[in-house]
């Protein structure tokens, strides 16, 4: 445990704008318990300088930190899909101990870089051979406990991943650690929610890997089971090929389908959306997502 602190900041960016002489009280666990502007300089220790709130990292796959830089060959055949093959090879060799170590490393790196909260888009659910752990929530538990130990706030987002693509109803063998039925995914979400109650600065939402990985009728059903205020994330329009495949299979672009069929609102985060068109961007902005 740390010693409680009272810090006086020369200025800080608060919800109502920049304020001067800001007293920040921090308890022995390292949590900020109060922020008071226009305080007396004698009220606390002055570290000097100015302060802004810690940044949230909205999209993390912590286990991928271990392969950083190893999939970018620079050759003409190097792209997202070749990167994905490298990722599969790493994912299918990682033990829970490896996951804990890598997650701790990347969360410490985030804190050192000014990120104080993370959205963990977690789909490494099962054992390397694809069979569930004895406790289906064990992998999520590893991530949640690591975040608490490191001291970073976390929104844990167990990912529903069901198939290899629009025209591939069965998953590839390399995806075996990611795959769940709707029912087994719901158990992981519920179990993670119970675990989150034991840790401060912890929230559990839900994520859907992508429209190519979750059939549209099951995506609708899954969304209906969530608490109305639960954060929910999905990869969308990340690659040109994904958009083209979606149009071919469903007759509509992925972001447009989500806007029209799911009812995107402020609880949603559409990750990447690199290839959203102008109309989709306009509608996303209006949705509050």
Explain what this protein looks like in three dimensions.
This protein is of the alpha/beta class. It folds into two domains: 5-51, Urease, subunit C, domain 1; 55-287, TIM Barrel (Alpha-Beta Barrel), CATH 3.20.20.140. The protein is 33% helix and 22% strand. It has eight helices and eleven strands. Strands 5, 6, 7, 8, 9, 10 and 11 form a seven-stranded parallel sheet that branches. Strands 3-2-1-4 form a four-stranded mixed sheet, with no helix packed on it. The mean pLDDT is 94. Keywords: Hydrolase, Metal-binding, Zinc. InterPro entries: Amidohydro-rel, HutF-like_N, Metal-dep_hydrolase_composite, Metal_Hydrolase, Metallo-dep_hydrolases. GO terms for molecular function: deaminase activity; metal ion binding.
Percent helix: 25-40%
The top-level CATH class of the largest domain is Alpha Beta
Terminal CA distance reads: 38 Å
User: Outline, from the CA principal axes?
Assistant: globular
Radius of gyration (Å): 21 Å
CATH architecture verdict of the largest domain: Alpha-Beta Barrel
| Oligomeric organization of the protein chains | single chain
| Topology as a string of helices (H) and strands (E) | EEEEEHHEHEHEEHEHHEH
GO molecular function, one term: metal ion binding
Organism: marine metagenome
Domain Amidohydrolase-related: 52-284
Cofactor: Zn(2+)
């Amino acid at each position: 445990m740390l010693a409680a602190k009272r810090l006086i900041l020369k200025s800080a960016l608060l919800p109502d704008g920049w304020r001067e002489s800001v007293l920040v009280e921090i308890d022995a666990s390292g949590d900020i318990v109060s922020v008071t502007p226009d305080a007396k300089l004698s009220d606390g220790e002055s570290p000097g300088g100015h302060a802004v709130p810690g940044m949230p990292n909205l999209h993390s796959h912590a286990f991928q930190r271990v392969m950083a830089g190893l999939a970018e060959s620079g050759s003409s055949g190097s792209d997202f899909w070749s990167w994905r093959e490298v990722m599969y090879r790493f994912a299918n060799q990682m033990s829970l101990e490896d996951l804990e170590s890598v997650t701790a490393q990347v969360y410490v790196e985030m804190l050192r870089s000014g990120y104080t909260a993370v959205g963990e888009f977690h789909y490494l659910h099962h054992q390397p051979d694809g069979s569930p752990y004895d406790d289906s929530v064990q992998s999520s538990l590893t991530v949640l406990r690591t975040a608490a130990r490191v001291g970073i706030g976390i929104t844990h987002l167990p990912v529903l991943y069901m198939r290899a693509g629009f025209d591939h109803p069965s998953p590839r063998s390399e995806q075996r650690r990611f795959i769940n039925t709707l029912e087994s995914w719901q158990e992981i979400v519920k179990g993670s929610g119970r675990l989150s109650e034991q840790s401060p600065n912890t929230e559990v939402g839900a994520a859907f890997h992508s429209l190519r990985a979750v059939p549209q009728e099951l995506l609708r059903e899954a969304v209906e089971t969530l608490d109305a205020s639960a954060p929910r994330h999905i990869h969308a329009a990340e690659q040109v090929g994904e958009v083209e495949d979606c149009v071919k299979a469903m007759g509509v672009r992925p972001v447009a389908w989500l806007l029209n069929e799911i009812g995107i609102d402020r609880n949603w985060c559409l990750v990447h959306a690199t290839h959203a068109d102008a109309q989709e961007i306009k509608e996303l902005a209006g949705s509050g997502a």
